Amino acid sequence: MIGRKSQKLVFLLLAAIVVLVARAWYVDLSAAPQARGAAGTASVPQLVLGPPAPVLSAPAALASANPVGGGASAVPSTAPYYGETDTTGSVFQRVATTAVPEFVREELLVRDITNGVDLADLNQSVRWPTASLTKLMTATLVLDHFSMNTQITVTPQMMAVDPEEGHLVVNGTYSVYDLLHVMLMPSSNVAAEAFADYYGRTKFLQEMNARAKAWGMNDTYFNDPSGLSSANESTAHDLAILATHVYENYPTILQFTDTPDIVITNYANGTKVDVRSINDFAGTPGFIGGKTGYIPEAKDNLLSLFRYDGNPVLIIVLGAGDTAERFSDTTNLLDWVKMDYK
User: Fold this and answer.
1) Number of neighbours of residue 310 by Cβ within 10 angstroms
2) 11-to-2, 3, 24, 28, 42 alpha-carbon distances in Å
3) To 10 degrees, what angle do helices 176-184 and 134-145 make?
4) DSSP helix/strand/coil, 305
5) Residue 216 falls within a domain, yes or no?
6) Which positions of the chain have pLDDT values less than 50?
């Protein structure tokens, strides 16, 4: 027989087991409403460990999805890829975190050319028809090999590249100074051909390509001096190299491209013609200079240098939908720089 003390211990043990089973049964019933959805199917409870994740601003969200930039999230998208590189070496200090304006473009590049730091880019290493941005390289050779007072007579062969030329005439004689303005302001193809033919076209093109190679423009090729051919190709990266050389060593080119209008002289008969720039930025405050470009294969290109807070900012847009868009896109990118950098 079990002693009275042993019976008491067994009773207490059984009572404890009953209490534990009842408590577990009660907890399971009380949790049932939260563990089942409206349709009665089981759902997994979500645990939050620690404080809620901080809400990221747009650029921070880009950086978290991809350290070198990207779309609004890590999910693959058809939206353009906009990289925001490390800009700590820039002459500009970042003071805000506004997202880079997004456009449907083939290429774009925003660069602090003082220190060679890119503030934003899209496909900057993809080759693209340069169109009349080619004329910037043409102009560097003209300044190195021609005197401004030299006079060149336009031949039928020169005029053949663009019979609809509106400023120069066959057998007209013009100074290099005036021809440079005509080439850079209304983007005359005839003026570009006049320089090449006068110098020796084959040699001129060889020197254009040799200079590109010497400057490290490894993805650039020039097939003509004007950019009419779609075989003239470069990248936003290479064009930024060209723009930097122009800014540092050929300021005359930028002065000419910042000129809104000028009167040129045909020395063959003394007639004068008014020449106006097709660049909307020419003559506006803060604009240093640049070049427009268009052929059907390239769509609308624009290379622009602006003075901001005492320093040059380069903006390149390649493949804009039309003339108005290349200027509005450039303006929006410049506004972004002014909003985010000081």
Assistant:
1) 7
2) 12, 12, 20, 26, 39
3) 170
4) strand
5) yes
6) 1-2, 5, 10, 18-19, 21-81
Residue 254's domain comprises 128-340
Q: DSSP code of 102?
A: -
For residue 235, being part of any structural domain is answered with: yes
Contact 91, 311 (CB under 8 A): yes
CA-only gyration radius of the chain, Å: 34
CA 76 – CA 64 distance, rounded (Å): 15
Note the pLDDT tens digit of each residue in 284-328: 999 999 999 999 999 999 999 999 999 999 999 999 989 999 999
Kindly report the CATH number assigned to the domain that includes residue 264: 3.40.710.10
Domains in the chain: how many in total? Answer: 1
pLDDT of residue 138: 98
| 37 exposure class (CB count in 10 Å sphere: 0-12, 13-18, 19+) | exposed
- 156 by Cβ neighbours in 10 Å (0-12 / 13-18 / 19+) ranks as exposed
pTM more than 0.85: no
In a domain, 4, yes or no: no
What pLDDT sits at residue 28?
40
Nearest to 258 by CA among 289, 237, 286, 236: 289
pLDDT in tens, 233-271: 999 999 999 999 999 999 999 999 999 999 999 999 999
Contact criterion met (CB below 8 Å) for 291 and 132: yes
Residue 27 lies in a domain: no
